[in-house]
Design goal:
The chain has 377 residues and is α+β, with helices and mostly antiparallel strands. The protein has helices at 8-15, 36-43, 69-73, 92-99, 210-223, 247-261, 264-275, 293-301, 338-346, 358-369; strands spanning 21-23, 50-54, 61-64, 80-84, 109-117, 131-136, 140-146, 155-158, 162-165, 170-176, 181-184, 190-196, 198-205, 306-308, 314-317, 320-326, 329-332, 349-350, 373-374. The protein binds succinic acid and cobalt (II) ion (CO).
Length: 377
């Protein structure tokens, strides 16, 4: 298990969305959760999102995985980096590292990206719209971070795939060693260069943009066949200016627009569904054959654990603990099963040392049969 060696609450108060910083020894005696060879193995898998970035002779190139064995048989000594997105979805140790950041909510968490960098490897100077904690594993990298982007940086696209900027003056310039953590809020330019072959782990957080909320809400309204009404105004009067939109008509139409957003249940369901959808592929496999409730009950009675698919988002609203949003789906339970539902959302394992009502077993069976939780046989 990984444990942060600093107070996340104090860190958040001082730095979150404010300033980049380095937390020296953020993990004590850090041990890499994965080897470079295992990482290469992941990048050969069809369902895993990976990239290979090379910067030999200052010429940038970026290639998407999956990669073949051959790729790793003939690698140059230096100037390249292998990147695997959402490694926490596919690797248990990576998932455990991500778990140590659980004081930050699941709805904000995006993924754990892992980079193996050969000497001088990196992705060049760039700006992300993510909050990221970059945990240094084995090796050493030098990190530079510049002042927040206020439109002063010039974009330069490399190899038609890499979004870089032309350069920046560093406000941070430091070498990270195993266990050190660099935090970068959105909008601060940064660049890592590799001094010694390195593994680094980027724990990324992404909040939705206003335009995403609006466009996804419009899709939600259409999908649920809501708001299928025209403006109704029996008090309507004639007007002398044919081309004019009266202030009163603008007000009625604006009210219509607002009214959709003033349905608290609609908005909370919409947010739950949107925020519980992962942006990266998940290892969801429905069991075959399906489990029967009795078998699930027997498994728990025999002290067997049941695991949540790594990276699956299961969320609930603070004031509504009998509804969960799991991978974009709404799951409602009776009040009596609220405690189970919230622990399903908060924990990654269903621990067997509790009593389960028949309705609780039915819920767990349904989730296992959807492939959202699984039983190791
Ligand atoms: C890197 O490790 O070079 C890429 C990580 C990042 O800049 O976000
Ligand atoms: Co970055």
């Amino acid at each position: 298990m990984y444990q942060l060696n600093f107070s996340m609450a104090e860190f958040v108060e001082q730095y979150w969305h404010k300033q980049p910083t380095i937390i020296k020894g953020g993990f004590k005696d850090f041990v890499d959760p994965i080897s470079p060879e295992e990482l290469a193995g992941l990048s050969m898998e069809e369902e895993v999102d990976s990239r290979f970035v090379s910067n030999h002779d200052n010429k940038w190139s970026a290639e998407h995985g999956p990669f073949s064995e051959d790729k790793f048989g003939q690698l140059p000594q230096s100037h390249w980096q292998l990147i695997v997105q959402a490694a926490n979805h596919w690797h248990q140790g990576a998932a455990q590292l991500a778990e140590s950041f659980k004081q930050l909510p699941n709805w904000l968490f995006d993924d754990l990206m892992i980079c193996y960098s050969a000497e001088h490897g990196g992705v060049g100077p760039h700006i992300d719209q993510y909050d990221v904690f970059i945990v240094q594993g084995h090796g050493k990298r030098q990190w530079k971070v510049g002042a927040k982007d206020e439109g002063q940086y010039k974009e330069s696209i490399q190899a038609s795939a890499l979004r870089q900027i032309e350069g920046f003056d560093p406000i941070i310039d430091q070498v990270l060693e195993p266990g050190d953590i660099l935090y970068i809020p959105p909008g601060f330019p940064h660049e890592g260069t590799t001094l010694e072959p390195s593994m680094s782990y980027s724990i990324g957080y992404r909040s939705p943009k206003e335009q995403e909320l609006i466009s996804n809400f419009a899709d939600f309204v259409l999908a649920h066949d809501m708001g299928d009404t025209h403006l109704h105004d029996p008090e309507f009067k004639t007007q002398s200016n044919f081309g004019q939109i009266r202030q009163s008509d603008l007000a009625s139409l604006t009210k219509m627009l607002h009214s959709a957003l003033e349905q608290p249940n609609t908005v909370s369901d919409f947010m739950g569904c949107l925020l519980s959808q992962s942006r990266h592929q998940l290892d969801i496999v429905a069991p075959e054959p399906l489990w029967k409730a009795e078998e699930v009950s027997n498994h728990l009675a025999a002290q067997g654990e049941i695991y949540k698919v790594s990276g699956l988002k299961a969320l609930y609203h603070e004031t509504e603990t009998n509804v969960a949003y799991i991978n974009g789906e709404v799951i409602k339970v009776e009040e009596g099963d609220s405690a189970l539902l919230t622990s399903l959302c908060n924990e990654s394992i269903i621990a067997p040392e509790q009593t389960f009502s028949p309705s609780a077993i039915a819920l767990i069976t349904d989730l296992v049969n959807k492939g959202y939780w699984f039983i190791e046989e």
